[in-house]
TrEMBL record:
It comes from the Eukaryota. It comes from Canavalia gladiata (Sword bean). InterPro entries: MPH2 (IPR038862), MPH2_C (IPR049072). Residues 119-224 form the Maintenance of Photosystem II under High light 2 C-terminal domain. One of its GO terms (biological process) is photosystem II repair. This is Maintenance of Photosystem II under High light 2 C-terminal domain-containing protein.
Length: 224
């Protein structure tokens, strides 16, 4: 109790004196005791407070530093992402411009190629007639439409159109596939091989349809 009280009281100087007397003689004994409990206690508490607060402040400072660094890193990442997105948008815009320019150039070539478009329209009619004949297993009719070889006029004219209107390797690849399949079709029909004729016809027709889609001619031709 006394210790608690001393630790919470205001600074003070405590003096105590005691006297004793007897009937025969008198003697005075004075004892002065000086205490400074508060000063000692205050210093101790201050040290304890510093010890207690220092880790807390350190952790808080570390937390603030970590949070600041984290936010700065995010800001940097967002900035970098924005730059990359801007570059992507610019590249996409340039690609759109190039594609549009190519389409306009292609449309100009098609518009100025009426004769070649006519050759291709004749090719569509020939393939349609051959397909109908093969559907009925009528190889003689299919053979009469195709002719005996790839040197026939309609095949040669079709290739003139192919060469003029093909502008990239992919389109030229489809042309090669068409010609190869057409040669197989003519050969199979001449041999009266129905199954091989049908397979070769599907291959040639598919290659031609792909080519017209690539070149933008699909909308210009009837019967596709």
């Amino acid at each position: 109790m006394a210790t608690n009280f001393l630790s919470t009281a205001n600074p003070f100087l405590l003096s105590s004196s005691s006297s004793s007397s007897s009937s025969s003689s008198s003697s005075v004994t004075s004892t002065h005791v000086h205490y400074h409990p508060i000063k000692c206690t205050a210093k101790r508490e201050l040290s304890l407070c510093k010890a207690a607060l220092s880790p807390t402040l350190t952790k808080r400072s570390m937390s603030i530093s970590f949070f600041t660094s984290f936010m700065l890193s995010l800001t940097g990442k967002n900035a970098n992402a924005a730059i990359l997105e801007a570059d992507d948008d610019e590249e996409l815009l340039e690609k759109v411009k190039r594609d549009r320019k190519k389409r306009l150039e292609k449309q100009g070539v098609i518009s100025s190629s009426r004769q070649e478009t006519g050759y291709l329209q004749d090719l569509v009619y020939k393939l349609s007639a051959v397909g109908q004949a093969l559907d009925k297993n009528d190889l003689p009719t299919a053979g009469s439409v195709l002719g005996g070889s790839t040197d026939t006029d309609w095949v040669q004219r079709a290739n003139i159109a192919f060469n003029k209107l093909s502008s990239n390797p992919e389109e030229k690849t489809e042309v090669d596939t068409f010609n190869s399949s057409l040669a197989s079709l003519i050969s199979s029909v001449s041999k009266n091989d129905v199954e091989s004729s049908k397979l070769a016809f599907v291959s040639s027709a598919t290659a031609f349809e792909k080519w017209t889609s690539m070149t933008g001619l699909a909308a210009q031709l009837k019967g596709l």
